[in-house]
Amino acid sequence: MNQHQALLAYVSRLGDNGLILGQRMIEVVAAYPELEEELANANFALDYIGQARMFYTYAGELEGSGRSEDDFAFLRDENEFHNYLLIEQPNGHFGDSIAKLVLFDSFYLLLLEALKDCNVKRLAEIAARAEKEIRYHLRHNSQWLVRLGDGTEASHARVQDSVDSLWQYTGELFAADEVDQIFAESFAGPDLEAIQEQWKANVATILEEATLTMPGDGWMASGGKQGRHSEHFGYMIAEMQYLQRTHPGATW
Amino acid sequence: MVTSPVSREQVLEWLSEIPDPEIPVLTITDLGIVRDVTVSDKVVVDVTPTYSGCPATEMIEQSVVDTLHDRGIEDVLLNRVLSPPWTTDWISDAGRDKLRKYGIAPPEKGGSKRELLHGKRTISCPRCESSHTVVVSEFGSTACKASYKCNDCLEPFEYFKCI
């Protein structure tokens, strides 16, 4: 894999993460427990999708193939999406969604902060834009985690269970593969080991405030970054791509 | 058709009449999303998106093009700039006054630097200026507004979110 291929793969992965997380969140639009949270969830999903659009547009330019953001989203198969397994997990109940977002956003914020200093100007600019939004999301999500964890006995037990079940998907966030390594070496990309250390400290602070216990690191799932997804993924993109698959080339 | 070349100031003046689709009391120049205008053989307008997920971005860009076309400028190039990223600090002082008169508390400056869990702050009521207010929903009602209530005049009001 040369430098250009690694950069393209890296940018396209960032797009996949934004799109898949946004799509997941949009599944519960019009089904949230209360109106304000409904709006917050939908607005956050729009931010992730908006960020994905910027990454995909850039990936299309890097590729030089003329692929548009829509081509990346609607005309690729399951194994061509290289997002983290964590974010494709089903929404579950409200506590599951909040726990997932706290674990992911705590990582994503650190990643974007590091990307601001990479030597790919366009990527650094998108990261600087996105970082402000993710910081805002994380404020929302961590405040909810505290409310649920430090709430009633029932909410505490349920959200502890959410954190415990999702923990196995956090290892992949920090497991550098060839793409991450080339990107780090050639483009001053993020140091995932340093990010992991900081992530653990930040998550520990939020969990402590939420009176929750940080799970121990056991077996960690992996494969999302290489296009090997959990079973849930196919159903999700089948719905996302339904229109283009049923009516190829449809526009409106 | 405008035959003599148009000035940068003229273009900026035209753009300063375009309302924001979501908060029409503000214009797009009040919001600080028009970064620059360059006039050569064509008119180049540098615009920056607000929130990445803002559904109004394309609509705003289209209204820039339409406005200049209506004034006879045919060759318009929109240049989307990301750096430095937009924050609520880009809203002009005139824009902040307009928001207050409209009943929306303007965003505090430097809002994006608040702490994650303990970032408390006081928002003044845009109607009676009391600081005795309470947050009802920090992350509603829209992508760019939060809901507050004034404990003195008892009016609910909106607060422009900071990023």
Task: Give a short synopsis of this structure.
The complex is a heterodimer of chains A (252) and B (163). With 252 residues, chain A is an all-alpha fold. Chain A has twelve helices and no strands.
Your description of this structure?
The complex is a heterodimer of chains A (252) and B (163). Chain A is an all-alpha fold. Chain A has helices at residues 3-26, 35-63, 69-74, 85-88, 94-115, 121-149, 153-166, 171-174, 178-187, 192-209, 232-240, 242-246. The model of chain A has no long low-confidence stretch (mean pLDDT 95). The longest helix of chain B is centred in the middle third of the chain and has 14 residues, at 57-70. Chain B is elongated. In chain B, a hairpin with a 2-residue loop joins strand 5 (133-142) and strand 6 (145-150). Classes of the chains: A mainly alpha (252), B alpha/beta (163). Chains A and B meet through helix 2, helix 6 and helix 10 of A and strand 5 of B.
Structural descriptors:
heterodimer, A: 252 residues, mainly alpha, Ferritin, B: 163 residues, alpha/beta, four-stranded mixed β-sheet, three-stranded mixed β-sheet, elongated
Strand order of the largest sheet of chain B: 4-7-6-5
Q: What is the terminal separation of chain B in angstroms?
A: 41 Å
CATH class assignment of chain A = Mainly Alpha
Number of strands of chain B: 7
Shape of chain B: elongated
The major sheet of chain B is characterized as: 4 strands, mixed
Residue stretches of chain A low in confidence (pLDDT < 50, at least 5 long) are none
> Which structural class fits the helix and strand makeup of chain B?
alpha/beta
Please work out how many helical segments of chain A DSSP would assign. 12
| SSE pattern of chain B, N- to C-terminal | HHEEHEHEEEE
| Total helical segments of chain B | 4
What is the ordering of alpha helices and beta strands of chain A?
Answer: HHHHHHHHHHHH
Ends apart, CA distance between termini of chain A = 38 Å
Total domains of chain A: 1
Bin the helical content of chain B. Answer: 10-25%
Largest sheet of chain A: none
